[in-house]
Structure formats: C-alpha cells, structure tokens
Write a structure and sequence with these properties.
The chain is about 20% helix and about 35% strand. It is of the alpha/beta class. Strand 3 and strand 4 form a beta hairpin. The longest helix is centred in the middle third of the chain and has 14 residues.
Amino acid sequence: MESPSLTHLVQFRVVSVTAETNDAKSFRLQASEPLSYKPGQFLTIGIPSDRGTVARCYSMSSAPHEDDVTITVKRTPQGYASNWMCDHVAAGDTLTALPPSGNFVPPAQDADVLLFAAGSGITPVMSIAKYVLTQTDRNVALFYANRDPAAVIFAEQLRVMSKDHPERLHVVHWLEELQSLPGTADLQRFASVYPNYSAYACGPEPFMNAVTDALSSQGFPGDRLKREVFQSLSGNPFEIEEMVSEPGADLSSVKGSCNGASFDFDDWPSDVPLLQYLLSKGVDAPFSCRSGECGACCFQLIEGAVEMEQNDVLDADELADGYRLACQAKPSSESIVITYD
C-alpha cells in the first residue's frame, strides 16, 4: 500500500493582528489560494516547537462571505501553542494549515438559530451568527457567558451587530462576577422563548452539559443541537506515517463520494482505518487529528458496517444516524457504502 502524503496544505499570510481582550487575539489571514469553508469550521495550524511541528485547531470567527479568514485565539494557562500564537505571530508572517474542517455547521436551509457560548467558545458561534444575519433572513438568539466584562470577546462587534439587526438578533450577556455560573434553570429560561430554533453550543464541558440538560428537559429534539468539542490533539496530522496492512487481512469493498467526487475500491484491508486507506488511494478525504478527537473526518455510513477503535466526539444520536470517524473506522462487512457529502 502506498504511503499517503499531505498534498493539500494551505499557506496563509497574516494581514493583521487584533487584541480582542487581554488574553485573546484575532488573526486576519489571507490564503495563498482560493479557499472555501462553512460557518463554524476551524483550521488546523502547524505550530513550530523544539519537538518539530505541533498541531492545534482554531475556529474561524469570520464568515465565508468575508474577504479574508480570521481565527481567534485565547491564551490558555501553560498552553504552548496559544501563547506562541499570541506572543510571536505578527502581520506579514506566514502560517501553514490544513484545509478548513469541522461539522459544527448550520445547514443551508436550517431554522432560526439559538446560540450558546462561554468564553472563547464564542469564536465558531460568531462565524455562524455573521453568516445567518448577513446571508439569510433567519433570526439569531445568543446566550454568551463570561467571567466579567473585560473577558467578553467581540464585545464591540456584537454591539454593532445588535444595532444593525435589532429585530433579528437577541444577545444576552451573562457575567459570572455578577450572576455566578449559569445553571440549567438559567439556560432553560433563555431557551424557552425559542422552542423551534436549532441550537449550537461551544464552551467548557460543564457549560455545554448544562445547555444539553436545559434543552433536553424541555423536550428539545437531540438532532437540533450541535456541540463543538475541542481537545488538545495527541497526534500530529502534519506527519503521516505509512501504515502497512498485515498479510492475510480480509479485504472489503468501499464506495462513496467525497467533495463531489465518487470512488469505488475493492481492497480495503480489515486492519487499516478508512482515512489512511482513502488517502493512500488519492482521495482528498478531510481530517485533522487522526486520533478520534476532533470530528473533522466524519462521514456517514449508508450501507454495511464498520467498527471504530475510539470516539471522543460523536454522540448517540449521531451514531444512530450513521455518522462515523474515518480515522478510527475499520471494515466489518464485505461491502460498504459511505458519503462525506
């Protein structure tokens, strides 16, 4: 089996750097080639270190209709990559990234949107809000929790957006120093006004669990809530090692579509993850962490069966709908049909 290679890296020139708060900066980037992405997606950035390149996922706070791409990075205590970005990256520098990825994306024909964000979780939520308000006629309700006023990222942008769309955008700022941490009951009261909206949540795990509890207790359908979960990547997607199948492994057929292109192969070994196999065949399959931690490689299983070695991303509803992680999926039936589209 051929060794896959990273043929599609994107170079970005840093156009400007903006301090959003004392510990968060936005980096406006200009891609070296035409770039398309969806609101709510992220870039996997290569960060230099004394151990070689390390990879980190940063959500885009810009929306696809804007001229350039913007990522927003908040420092984390003892976080090497976020501190390197905030301390060393300046206008004129170049960053290397994988193409945009992620499934925290509103469908084109979605309902009005109910957004929940805490801290830097506002980044992909901001992208979604900009898209919905400028490219559709739908409404947006945003619950945004922070420690205090100084920690509110995009405070001025949100003020302007509220002024420009007074009938369509409703923003509630929740400040911990005044109101303590938002609890399930607080989130229930906010969400109860928008029972038919589709919800999106991004923030620390306790916050997102509270959002999930608040919505489910009101009978909110699970398939109308998307959660964005980021973890520090344990692997390095910028360095792909050759994976060789053991002699005698069973072979399965797999056909499907990815980025509008169809494929049909009949020699997928039972001990090789789908992502590794498709990359070896020249399929431009999406990925980021390759460790089952980010969800960028998610596909939908149409026919057949696969087994995943690890899953830190997909919930029970998504699994029931056939979604699987290509970096963790190995064939467990003779014939398999999938789609990324």
